[in-house]
Amino acid sequence: MQPKETGAAYDKIASHWVGDDFNQQNGLPQHHRALQFAVAAGRALDIGCGSSGRIIELLVEVGFEVEGIDVSAEMIRLAKERHPDVTFHHVDICQWPLTESYDFITAWDSLWHVPVADQPAVIEKVCGALAPSGVFIMTAGGLDGPGEVTNPCHGEPLYHATLGLPKLLRLLDANGCVCRHLEYDQFPEPHVYAIAQKL
Hints:
Elements: H1 3-13, H2 28-35, E1 43-47, H3 54-61, E2 65-70, H4 73-82, E3 87-90, E4 102-107, H5 119-128, E5 130-141, E6 147-153, E7 156-162, H6 165-174, E8 177-184, E9 191-198
Parallel strand pairs: 1-2, 1-4, 2-3, 4-5
Antiparallel strand pairs: 5-9, 6-7, 8-9
Domain Methyltransferase: 45-134
Pfam families: Methyltransf_25 (PF13649)
Protein name: dTDP-3-amino-3,6-dideoxy-alpha-D-glucopyranose N,N-dimethyltransferase
């Protein structure tokens, strides 16, 4: 499943993340932990920002200048309604050149939609966009090796893939980042989040 198809699927279900059924605290405790490693509240980027704006709101509250990107046009439209003063980009992270430097980058429940063959290049690009001591928080499938699957989500097919934790950690290291925290935060589900910091 290519990013364009993922974006089209999310266009149809984008309202779920702004509805009453979605837990708006999802991922926030993990981001509070990641922010403890941040040395400056400078520029931040939310990759796969979605429509809820909860992570962007947190980053703005603690002083970051935030940008959001998403492959879904409807996600971006809803996000702009909630945060009209934030800069949003309707782009595919696989194709978008990260030419700026960021002190904090989040990719919460987003990079696992990137085709597995493209994930190493995307992670390299994200690590390269971190300022010195910059922090990167991301989620991944907590498997020992690579895997990919397409499952329904609110009636729409969504692709998920993982490189496997050993390869992910090697990639972070090879691109100048050290893993500060790794946790199976929804155990026994294989949902993992990692906090990395640029050396």
